[in-house]
Amino acid sequence: MERKVDILVIGGGPAGIVSSLTAKKYYPDKTILMIKNVKNSVIPCGIPYMFSSLKSPEENRLSTKPLENNGIEVVIDEAVRIDRKNKCVETKKGDRYSYEKLILALGSLPVVPPIPGIDKEGIYPIYKDMDYLKKVVKEVKEKKDILILGGGFIGVEFADEVSKLKGKNVYLVEILPHILANSFDEEFSILAEEKLRSKGVNVLTNAKVVEFLGNKRVSGVKLEDGRELKVDCVILGIGAVPNTKLATDAGINLGMGKGIWVDEYMRTIDPDIFAVGDCAGKRDFYTRKDAPVMLASIATAEARIAGANLYQLKVVRENKGTIAIYSTYIDGLVLASAGLTENSARKEGFEIVTGSFEGVDKHPPAMPGASKIKVKLVFSKQSGIILGGQVAGGLTCGELINLIGIAIQKRMSMTEMETLQIATHPCLTSAPTMYPIVMAAQDAAYKLR
Q: Domain spanning 2-37+77-109+241-308: which CATH class is it, in words?
């Protein structure tokens, strides 16, 4: 079968969905078709919560109804070849789709490290496929000794969720000295470790798995220091790599990292082919170095840029880099980070000053539901421009980090941040006299004086 469409989207994750819907808004007369190779997709950020918080894994289904409601056709198939000369895509089923504009939202693939025994039964990489994940959830619930490999965001969230299941012995193994080390300074990582340990999770840092033990099925792991742990199920939460083979086979270049090279408007070297989300290369907001940050929030921002600018540059991009803004939740504790940590800023050679504050997120502190809050801001010493921030505390931190993220993207100064005009209310925020971001900025300014 051969078909002609105006806009062809390959990939049905958040980036594919948002780029399709944005394109429809900006170019309503264009026909749009999406090819996705997974019939039942999932909301990526919700995968850890399929184990306990959600009543059923099905509640984490990623719906394509918004596409169908906007006249965007969805085809379940796999794109296997891009013919750039004739502007068409061939699929596994033997169909051909010609296009005017092509959006690659190919996503990422889980990292499967070359550790002896990694191919044994009971060891699970995380694929964004509902049918696959339902089997993983079922198996984890049936087993007792669960090991999660990787202490980044996804590993930490898996450990928290699995520890909520009754009768589980949960290990979280991280090769670095602290969990969440790539996104937080040590004092924040320690908060996460203490919270997980208080829930009974065996947090093992400075630990490296060198072999998976067992016959056909995993029965344990051997660590570099000689220790052996009895486990009957392993979740690989050590990250992902951009899925780029379809693009590179078509002669589309990668950037300095592993993602597809794109310009500020998500265009590849081919002006009619765009790349968004995990498969697309990212550049750091401050240094322009490759930044391997894979988040749905970044993917959807890129998707809106691509969808709006397919035929003409309608939306001028202001934020020309990735600030790496994250948040996570561990049994009531919110940890969030944006931009550079103190550690990463010093490694890059920035001359910095930091400001910190610890308080309460409601006022007076005795208000029901009040939580302790900790804020750390990182500023350039000479210019006073904010470079990054970290927060820890209750649920209010989930939006507080977004305020810090805006400040970074708009390159706000220390002075601007210590004179912020903010709305406060006893039930909703810290006291106006002790607003955490203002106080942290003042602390940094005091150090300079």
A: alpha beta
C-alpha torsion 289→292→298→300, nearest 10: 120
In this predicted structure, what is the pLDDT of residue 219? 96
Task: Find where tokens 């004092």 sit.
Answer: 187
Distance between CA 430 and CA 420 in Å, rounded? 14
Identify the residue whose tokens are 């990623």.
Answer: 62
Fold of 123-238: FAD/NAD(P)-binding domain (3.50.50)
For residue 449, the model assigns a pLDDT of: 81
Domain ranges of the chain: 2-37+77-109+241-308, 123-238, 332-448
pLDDT in tens, 221-244: 999 999 999 999 999 999 899 999
pLDDT digits (tens, 9 = 90+) for 309-330: 999 998 887 667 899 899 999 9
pTM over the 0.85 mark: yes
Do 128 and 44 touch, CB atoms closer than 8 A? Answer: yes
Task: Tell me the pLDDT band of 33, cut-offs 50, 70 and 90.
Answer: very high
Give the pLDDT confidence of 148-205 residue by residue, as tens digits. 999 999 999 999 999 999 999 999 999 999 999 999 999 999 999 999 999 999 999 9
Amino acid at 195: K
Give the angle subtended at the CA of 331 by the CAs of 238 and 233, to the nearest 5°. 40
CATH of the structural domain 332-448, one choice from 3.40.190.10, 3.30.70.1400, 2.40.440.10, 3.30.390.30: 3.30.390.30
| φ and ψ of 42, to 5 deg | -125, 160
When pLDDT is averaged across residues 429-440 and rounded to a whole number, the result is 96
List, for residues 81-103, the tens digit of each pLDDT value: 999 999 999 999 999 999 999 99
